Amino acid sequence: MWSYRNPVEIGFGAGGFARLPALIAGRPYALVTYGEPVFAALAERLAGLAGPAAVILDQVAPNPDFAELPDCCRRLGEARQTPRVIVALGGGSVIDTAKALAAAGDDFGRVRRFLETGSGAEDLLALPIIAVPTTAGTGSEVTCWATLWHAAAERKYSLLRPSLYPEHAVIDPELLLGLPRDLTVSTGLDALSHALESLWNVNANPVSRSLAVAAAREMLVALPLVVADPTDLELRARVARAALLAGLAFSNTKTALAHALSYPVTLGYGVAHGIACSFSLPMVMRGAIGAKRACDQALQDIFGPDLEAGAARLAVFLTELGVSPDPGDHGIDEAAWRNIVRDAFAGARGKNYIGTPERFQAASSGAPRS
After folding, report:
1. Do both 143 and 220 map to the same domain?
2. Residue 170 lies in a domain
3. Do 160 and 186 lie in a common domain?
4. Helix axes 334-346, 257-269, angle to 10 degrees
């Protein structure tokens, strides 16, 4: 038995931003976004189309953290009108912040208590979200969880609630046209990781596999092209479409070992999430080869019949985008890497991986080291 579900209503296409007034439908809205000038201009454009926001929360930082989220909640509670919907305009950090606000309302203590103790679910709220991603990679616009960080405690939490699926996802490739190269690469690799992680996954099913294969094949072709020609709208649409398909795949499987490895790398070494969850993909892929026939067949649909050669090509693909597949090149020495691998296999995401520690060790023993 298997099942697949995703309740998000998706609108895809250039000019989709103009649909937001119809989706807001006259409701008082909170706008969650970044503080940069380009987002201020988008906020002004949205106000012209749908009326002014009840409150604009534009101090979102990368990797939303327990240190900043209480103030966001307080400001939400001080809105001139009580928001009945949240518009999340930005990348994964914006959308994850919006999800935290949707569950917490004016008191982040609701979410913090739930994450730290597992109690208080009945106190969580469920404010509707309209997600408008401005990067092609996070997938948060079609998932029901948010990654929240407690840097002071060196912890990462996943806020997972079915009520956190956005009401609508609006993917407008025009919003990606100004994306810097580094962010284009890191978010695109995040999406590639989502696709592959949903294949070597104990929760994979025929629908998620089909979505993941299509996503990975497209991202492997389109990402280098859009890096070379970032103003091409059709290329931006291709990577946005690939990221969406990857999001739909892992919305049902969750991630696996590469993401489990990434969290301490981001927290302890400051490596951007998209890079942290992708540099290990070749060794994680080698550790998955032969573990499950359906996964091998899906990987062959992406990389061809010789999967060892496919893993080698994946390493070259990363290197050509400026991402080393060697942990040492990200500042991680061998002893630290062994500890990271051990802890990753012990965690929830590591347990989604179809490989074993022994298989992974054998696969990574020949990997390059600095």
Report:
1. no
2. yes
3. no
4. 130
Q: Identify whether 370 is part of a domain.
A: no
Summarize pLDDT for 22-32 with one digit per residue, the tens: 999 999 999 99
Last residue of a domain, one of 174, 199, 214: 174
Instruction: Tell me the per-residue pLDDT of 183-211, one tens digit each, with 9 for 90 and over.
Output: 999 999 999 999 999 999 999 999 999 99
For residue 296, count other CB atoms closer than 10 A to its CB: 17
- Owning domain of residue 169: 9-174
- Asked if residue 314 and residue 219 are part of one domain, the reply reads yes
